[in-house]
Design a protein that fits this description.
Chain B: Keywords: Hydrolase, Membrane, Mitochondrion, Mitochondrion inner membrane. The structure is a homodimer. By secondary structure, chain A is α+β, with helices and mostly antiparallel strands. Chain A has two helices and nine strands, in the order αβββββββαββ. The longest helix of chain A has about 35 residues, at about 1-35.
Chain lengths: ~170, ~170
């Protein structure tokens, strides 16, 4: 008799645990789908985008819709997977689309300006801080397929709330 | 009176429609998560992977776990986003990982074999049918970040069921 009552009690607890787990899983699923396909908050840091983004770290909102629709343009701040290290993402500005001729200046290689032509399907990315940025000036044009999303709003720090500067 | 009865009838129908839509949405969410992160069936076609894959089209299973764990190796059949056209995916074989020296032969450029070194974070992809494949011999090494998944099983046509040949 006691065993039967324990079993039914346990079954009730197990059912409640399953229901709550199901709700948590559904919530995480929806959160993940929103993060991957619509908009996600991302922590970006480093000196390569000064003065647009701060060195110690900002939290920005990245939208993932534009790159799927092909609406990423010259001048956009994008989050892009690094061509040198597939586990890292970089935040840079697009300075050339496919077919463009890009004129760039690398302070570490002297005063000469160089020219590059973008091949089909590639973009030229550059950090706003040309003195401390490792970008297309060093590893060449990057395939468009590596773009993860476009930065459109900064939410932290609060005194820099808004669209990051041009 | 009639209006009230119509309203309550409509509310019952609307609730049932919402419940069924919710079940359909949850199913599509789970299907999508499985497709994107675990395993998805893909239709591949074209002459560049003869005789391993058929020209008129095969349905293969692609797993998306290995490339996230960095377990994609020399000799693997992979689905990779094209560096020239970000909307297209190619199915090729990996013939060189980062740091490797690749010796290749392009029949359209004469009899000479050429040598290339694969830079950091990149892979060298080649179709099994070197006479009809547009691959790294033409557009150079491709960033590892463009790999979408690894082909591990063919399900159609049924007489070619199994692991695609080496």
């Amino acid at each position: 008799m006691k065993l039967v009552s324990y079993m039914s009690q346990w079954r009730g607890i197990a059912k409640e645990a399953m229901d709550r787990t199901a709700i948590a899983v559904k919530f995480l699923c929806c959160l993940h789908i929103t993060d991957t396909y619509f908009c996600s908050p991302t922590h970006v840091y480093g000196p390569s985008m000064l003065p647009t983004l701060n060195m110690v770290g900002d939290i920005v909102l990245v939208e993932h819709v534009s790159q799927r629709l092909g609406k990423v343009r010259h001048g956009d701040l994008v989050v892009i997977r690094s061509p040198l290290d597939p586990k890292r993402c970089l935040t840079k500005r697009i300075m050339g689309m496919e077919g463009d001729t890009v004129t760039y200046f690398d302070p570490m290689l002297g005063d000469a300006t160089r020219v590059a032509v973008m091949p089909k399907g590639h973009v030229w990315i550059q950090g706003d801080n040309i003195f401390a940025s490792h970008d297309s000036r060093h590893f060449g044009p990057v395939p468009y397929g590596l773009i993860q999303g476009k930065v459109f709003f900064r939410v932290w720090p609060l005194d820099c709330l808004g669209v990051p500067g041009q």
